[in-house]
Amino acid sequence: MVPPRPALSFDHLGFVIAVLIGIALFAAPFATYRATRIASGEARLVIEALPFSMAAALALVALGVALGAVLARDPLGRLGSAVIGLAVLLPSLGLSAGYLTPADNNFARVSPSLGFWLLSLSFSLLAVDALARMRLGPFGRLAALAVGASALALLLLSGIWDDLSILKEYDTRADSFWREARQHLLLAFGSLAAACLFGIPLGVASHRLRTLRTAVMQSLSIVQTVPSIALFGLLMAPLGAVAASVPLAAALGIRGIGAAPAFFALFLYALLPIVANTVAGLNQVPAAVVDAARGMGMSARQRLLGVEMPLALPVILAGIRIVLVQNLGLATVAALIGGGGFGAFVFQGIGQTAIDLVLLGALPTVALSFGASVVLDALVDLSKGTTPA
């Protein structure tokens, strides 16, 4: 009989988390104060960035989380401590902004600094580790994502972060933010949809014809080796020529700069994972199943749509997951050629040395990529027809 694992024992990941928490509390600045949005920042430790009582409470909670991360093995206990840590940390950042900003000063800016990011990373790592140990099924993971997104939305709507520099950047650009958000999603999801419509049939054909498979895979592999900036640039000239010679193309928005070359570049990057995973998914369909379907009198089309594609679906969805996360990131670069998206704020912020404007574009991109990954991972599990206990 295997002895039960003790509830308290040394945890190696927990030790790393505890070290990060110690650095965040005692060595790294929690917030950065700037007299103006582009002025040099003044780093403030936790004890300087918050009223003493709040700083002490945050430190005690963080140290408690560190102790639990090192010693506790119970997943629910680890998750609970991580949630408590985040519940104290996130409002503390907003309180720090109000505490450091002088009264009636509209020019000062307060931004999260290394200590805050380390604490966020530590508590998030602990929460993810606890969820992994709980072995949640797809619906459980989707529910956890929904709870996390709802908590973040509630925090934003509460106004406690309104004094943060990134929210001030948002306030002055609210209309353009949502316009660029729509453009970013259009580029990422539109190119994914086009790649699926073209790539899945191409993958089926490549699975059937070995000579076609070799040519297609080699061609798409070459596309993947081209850096994104270079591919955007290469597409500008031919699309510009098409727009100049075909008035209908120009009327449809196809031009040498803007969203068109970005869309086509993302489409080309998306093809290899989708085609390759379609071929791999069809290859792993058992031959006995196909023979049984043939013996039942099913036509080639019926076998493909009714037997092979459903069995290959989990692998195809895994390729779509790769593409979506990739496209959400690469769409940021589209702003360099006028394609819009969240990259517009990233590159504006770099040009103005305004780090909070960079974050205004970068953080939503990261959040979208994380959310898309969780959702599609759950869909992959659901397509397998198995739900872990």
TrEMBL record:
Keyword Membrane in record: yes
Membrane topology: Multi-pass membrane protein
GO biological process terms on file: glycine betaine transport; transmembrane transport
Keywords, in A-Z order: Membrane, Transmembrane, Transmembrane helix, Transport
Transmembrane segments: 12-32, 52-72, 79-102, 114-132, 139-161, 181-205, 226-250, 262-283, 304-324, 330-350, 357-380
InterPro entries named in the record: ABC_transp_perm/SBD, MetI-like, MetI-like_sf
Subcellular location: Cell membrane
Keyword Transport among UniProt keywords: yes
Predominant cellular place of this UniProt entry's protein: membrane
UniProt domain ABC transmembrane type-1: residue ranges: 181-376
Gene3D superfamilies: MetI-like
SUPFAM superfamilies hit by this protein: MetI-like
Cellular compartments per GO CC: plasma membrane
Family membership noted in the UniProt record: Belongs to the binding-protein-dependent transport system permease family.
Alphabetical list of PANTHER family matching this protein: GLYCINE BETAINE UPTAKE SYSTEM PERMEASE PROTEIN YEHY (PTHR30177:SF30), GLYCINE BETAINE/L-PROLINE TRANSPORT SYSTEM PERMEASE PROTEIN PROW (PTHR30177)
Name of the protein in question: ABC transporter permease subunit
